[in-house]
Amino acid sequence: MISRLFDLFLPERTAAEPAPEERVQLATSAILVEAARADREFTPEERSHIIRTLHERFSLSKEDAEELVAESKKSLNESSDLWRFTNVLNQHCTPEEKREIVEEAWRVIFMDGALHAHEDHLLHKLGTLLNLTHPQLMDAKLKVLAEIRGESTA
């Protein structure tokens, strides 16, 4: 299943077009993996969080989620930019779904308790690529920070 997803993103592969849901799964995984790698360190905790997120968000088995993360890393290494991933999300996700993906990216970034300049830059870039406004991006960030601090966001 997962290898079919990468036919879309890796030009040397030729196969049937993956379903939109599979394309969204790959794009989401790639965004979260890139968020984890933004500080040059992809920790086991970040990997576990991403796998759990993919498992819950897309009802994937843990094994499929793990394979998706592994393939996302490979696809990111072979890609020159994030546009191909964000374009899929723009085509197939609502603004609310894109905001939720950005919230997950913020969660991954804040897992180590710090915000590095590269991470902040990446999330602002993702916000732009996903056609989110700056207030939407900041609302997502503040929501995640409130969760981390145990504050109510209601």
The string of secondary-structure elements, in order, is HHHHHHHH
Number of strands: 0
Give helix % range: over 70%
The main β sheet shows up as:
none
Query: Which ranges are low-confidence, i.e. pLDDT below 50, for 5 or more consecutive residues?
Result: none
Structural class: mainly alpha
Rg: 15 Å
Number of helices: 8
CATH C-level class: Mainly Alpha
Mean pLDDT: 89
What is the count of structural domains? 1
Q: What is the assigned CATH homologous superfamily?
A: TerB-like
Distance between the termini: 39 Å
> What is the CATH architecture annotation?
Orthogonal Bundle
CATH topology: TerB-like
**Percent of residues in beta strands:** under 5%
Q: Based on CA inertia axes, which overall geometry fits?
A: globular
